[in-house]
Amino acid sequence: MTTTTLAVLVPLLPFLGAAAGLLLGRRTPGLVRPLAVLPTLTALLLAVLVAVRQGGDKSVDAATELTPTGSVPIELALHIDGFAALVAVLVGVVASCVQIYSTGYLRDDPRYPSYAALVSLFTSAMLLVVYSGDLMVLLVGWEIMGICSYFLVGHYWETPEARAASLKAFLVTKLGDVPFLIGLFALAADAGSFRVTTVLATVADGRLDHPTLVALLLLAGVAGKSAQFPLHTWLPDAMAGPTPVSALIHAATMVAAGVYFVARLLPVFAASGAALVVLAVMAAVTMAGSALAALAQDDIKRVLAYSTIGQLGYMTGALAVGDRGAAVFHLLSHGAFKALLFLTAGVLIHAAGTNSLAAMSRMKGLRDRVPDAYWTMTVALLALAAIPPFSGFFSKEAVLGAAEHTATGHAASVPTAAGWIVLVAGLLTALLTAAYATRLWLLAFNGRGAEAPDHGRQPLAMTAVLWVLAVPSLAFGLAVGVLPDWFDGRSLSPTLTTSVVGTGLALIGGLVTYGAWRHTTSLAARVPMGAVAVSPDGDGGQVESEAIASHAPAYGDVASAHDPADPGRLLLGPLHRHAAAGFRLDAAYAVLFVRPVQAAARLVRFLDREVVETYVRGAGTAPRWLGAAVRRAQTGNVQTYLSALLAGTVVLAVAAVLVATAGA
Question: Does the keyword field hold Transmembrane (predicted)?
Fold first, then answer.
């Protein structure tokens, strides 16, 4: 079987699994889990085989014209280079782990058949984006992911939080997709084709007429899909969906699509220095702002959500300094440890009965209840904090090294300003990332107070997956010497300066947070458990309404009130309240956009009802009144008719006399 045929089967198998699951899931429940797991696992094996055959050498290209358009053709095309081959393997690994994990996590959920089918469709769409060699076909997968995210985030549709989050995710990403679509058409108009290879050849020849405009339009779609400032606000709210969905969206699909798209078409963006500076500023604000917000969150899933936004900022920062190898390296590394973090968080939530770190900090012995989650989450948090020798250290240092390379003027085609912006923001974020990772670990696993509830061992399908993902989280960084052969050949090895400075800042962040925790813990010992209560103003976490929980939450609906055990409050001080609310961006958007749109809608409704409908109603009312008047005159009395005729004759005669007299 040829490599092209294998590559076609990779996205096709999950799609067929999704279609079969939707058609047969309700009728034959016994087939639901095999249809969810087996096609995705098979697609993973085929993706690995495609990667081995591709081997980082010359890209695999194949195309057939989909339909004649009369102008720019649309083709079913494949373009598989080293980047695409490895990203497809990442998607397959994470999707397979999520499907296996979900068989235990949602085993009692009556909506599991539709959930599993949507996850398979989601996976198929992302694989289509990764392998596609035509921008219009890529757009199909891009939009299918948006639709799937709407349904998956709103899986618990009976809760208002899930309904609002799914709608918000759909609308915000679609807001970015409008200029994205315009940018694709503008790019195809300049290149004369939607084929990726043709577009890249056009850029290489310098025949792209409007590089800055095209790049900025495309960046709007990337910002929405990859949750970059200012279109990042949908991602923390998307935590209302099931935890495995969060792992899939944050690690390998949806948000990774934007970064991958820029990496694939990086020469288009590099053709405009202004676009690279805009991308660098966007990455810097995203990195630093999300890290501060993560340090103030109480909901464990929202901490990880803001962490994802920040790590995506590192990836876009690497792209802003023109190094797509570092960006995709961090994408692969982050995919492993972030999927692991979300899945371990799901085990932790299941065991504790709450999402709240404040509640977990008052549960003694939680680490003993979930030892698998404890050890694997520790590995994942060390990778997230970029502590050597874990994988996050190597990939994050590759980004910082690329930024240093550009800032010192060694990248002639990239503005040095972009390098300095990314480097400074990246180092600051390294400090903050270690701080919130340490805070999460301390609050989740070092609680003091009542014994944690014992709900028995977690399903094997959930715990086994954790150890599978722990391996790349620990060891993937060792591939740093091999990956350049798959990418552009540029070294991804850490540089001495950024390694020392970055690791030093990470250690400082962790130690300072530990010291703050020791101080706040002594204060928390004086505060009764009842002080931790629901925060009605949203300043804190939201308890996840998980259908898998066969038990009531051990501490009720616990969210973050003013918990004195939280070191984040001490570290952030007066900034904590604003950081916990995401710096009030949602409130600002409500004032600037939502309320004006709602006011305009009310005005349109008023004009429609009171003005337009008045004329419509009048057009029907006038003939009705005239008909009523004529009907009243039709009495059927002959004497009345003769009297009216005589009266009319007299009136006409008088009128004729008056007219004749006036004429004389």
Answer: yes
Residues constituting the chain: 664
| pLDDT at position 542 | 37
- Asked if residue 650 belongs to a domain, the reply is no
Whether residue 142 is predicted with pLDDT greater than 90 in this model: the reply is yes
Same domain, 477 and 443: yes
SS3 75: strand
Residue 21 counted as domain residue: yes
- Taking only Cα atoms into account, the Rg of the chain, rounded to an integer number of angstroms, comes to 31
Query: Which residues have CB under 8 Å from 549's CB, separation 6+?
Result: 350, 353
Write out 579-604 in H/E/C secondary structure: HHCHHHHHHHHHHHHHHHHHHHHHHH
Q: Which of 583, 259, 297 is nearest to 437 (CA)?
A: 297
Q: State the pLDDT at residue 456.
A: 67
Q: 566 in a domain, yes or no?
A: yes
DSSP readout, 433-501? HHHHHHHHHHHHHS--SEEPP---PPPHHHHHHHHHHHHHHHHGGGGGGTHHHHTTS---PPPHHHHHH
Q: Which of 331, 305, 332, 327 is nearest to 316 (CA)?
A: 327
Q: How far is CA 626 from CA 617, 630, 633, 643, in A?
A: 14, 6, 11, 22
Q: What is the DSSP letter of 611?
A: I
159 within domain boundaries: yes
What global pTM score does this model have?
Answer: 0.86
List, in order, residues 6 or more apart from 148 with CB less than 8 Å away.
118, 119, 121, 122, 125
Ramachandran sector of residue 108 (left: φ over 0; alpha: ψ -120 to 50; beta: rest): alpha
> What digits encode the pLDDT tens for the residues 259-315?
999 999 999 999 999 999 999 999 999 999 999 999 999 999 999 999 999 999 999
